[in-house]
Amino acid sequence: MKQEVAYWRSTRNVFREIGEVSLFAGRFFREVWRPPYEFREFVRQSYLIGYQSLPLVGVTGFIMGLVLTLQTRPTMVNFGAEGLMPSMVGIAIIREIGPVITALICAGKIGSGMGAELGSMKVTEQIAAMEVSGTNPFKYLVVTRILASVVMLPLLVIIADSIGLVGSSLVEYVKGDVSFRLYFTKVFDSLQFGDLLPATIKSFFFGFAIGLVGCYKGYHSRKGTAGVGRAANAAVVVTSMLLFIIDFIAVLVADIFYKL
Amino acid sequence: MNAPMQTVEERRKRGPQTPLIRLRDIHKAFGDHQVIRGFDLELYEGENVVIIGKSGSGKSVLLKCIVRLLQADKGQIEVLGHNLEAIDQYSLDQLRVDVGFLFQGSALYDSMTVRENLEFPLRRHPERMGEEAEEKLIREALDSVGLGSAIDLMPEELSGGMKRRIALARTLILKPKVILYDEPTSGLDPITSKEIIQLIMDIQEKYNTAALIITHDMDCARVISNRVVILVEGTNYAEGTYEELYRSEDPKVQAFFK
Predict the structure, then answer these.
(1) Which is it for the CA torsion B61, B63, B64, B66, positive or negative?
(2) Among A36, A132, A140, whose Cβ lies nearest the Cβ of B67?
(3) A126, closest residue in chain B (CA to CA)
(4) What pLDDT is attached to residue B7?
(5) CATH (domain of B202)
(6) Residue B183 covered by a domain
(7) Which residue, among B111, B173, B96, B79, has the nearest Cα to A133 in the 3D structure?
(8) Averaged pLDDT, B164-176
(9) Per the structure, how many domains does chain B have?
(10) ipTM score here?
(11) Domain limits, chain A
(12) Is residue B91 part of a domain?
């Protein structure tokens, strides 16, 4: 009986949380069009989210390209298909691995940062202080962060993809004696518009999910400093799960368009 | 010439006035815990009303209800003639400009310098006054709290007393008609507390603001108040001047003065 009660309570909490996040998203879409526009804060957030994530995203992308090529190369050689390596790695990175890995890295760096920063502002009453000075803290803190995240994530994905391909081409150059020019010619020959478009579109959704959940968790943080830690942690966990769900839906939708 | 602070007697002599803040039968609960159970209060122009009560008695909750950071469950709140129940968000934001709020923990924006903390409310106003006028206001507010030299410091570089002063300057910069102080001297040493109390009085004289102050500090209540309200079990248990309450023989009232 106790277990059943706990089960229903946690199920109800999950649905309540989904409802609250949806309302939060709805408020974002309402506020984003209304003046005043916090352009300076949006630029600052874009710098923090985009520029300051570049080293991490760059290194991750490079290693992603290196590892993927090193791991798959022996199998491809066994099948005598090493000539297909650039195409395979290129499509894999651009369609799937690049966006997902970059989004996961950003969920860890950006999402947790937003959760912790807004959570800390909440518990030290800085958000309340904005409110009582007649400012809309949602617009200043949340709208700018989500927008910056939506705009910056696709750019970070493109950079991570490019650096990943450079990493992969380096392995091909060393192990397979494939020139960089030949490698990239093969990659671009095998890529189609239909590979790039869904990957780019889903990156916008990834950015939205990271910004939305990070801000939601921070903005609704409670119970002191422990609550700030929980907000940062929950931002990463929930966003990571959400990213895979969005990715699954994106693949399903893209598949329908491929068939058409 | 600023209007001088008025005592209860003076106000009685002057006859009926419209209160700046009027609370009627306020109730507020958190879950099953009823914090405020029918609280009434009126705050008049030029007046300093101090609310004292035990920790957890709902003093901060009351202040937050007045600026609608919290919504009262029942009762009527009128601020500067506006009924908070019937006000839209835009009008509420406009109203909040006229009601300053000093938070217990100062609540300075820790990613901004002192200058940016003071600029923040100014720059988000429909009637922006231009950078020169804003700079002048910032300097004036900082000079009022005696911290003109701290303009480029970050909040982490300030002591507790300095933070409280900067927060007060940020509150003053919008020239509010009423200031709500949430424990202005808590966590400060006796000397800094006295400085903050003197500062609050100087500010009231200079800017002619009314103030609602909640505190545990009886020295602060004695020096600052025109009127003291004792909050017990969510209601205004006793009300009067500091001296009247000090002389009261009610054991619940006496408990605060012993």
Answers:
(1) positive
(2) A132
(3) B107
(4) 54
(5) 3.40.50.300
(6) yes
(7) B96
(8) 89
(9) 1
(10) 0.85
(11) 21-29+38-255
(12) yes
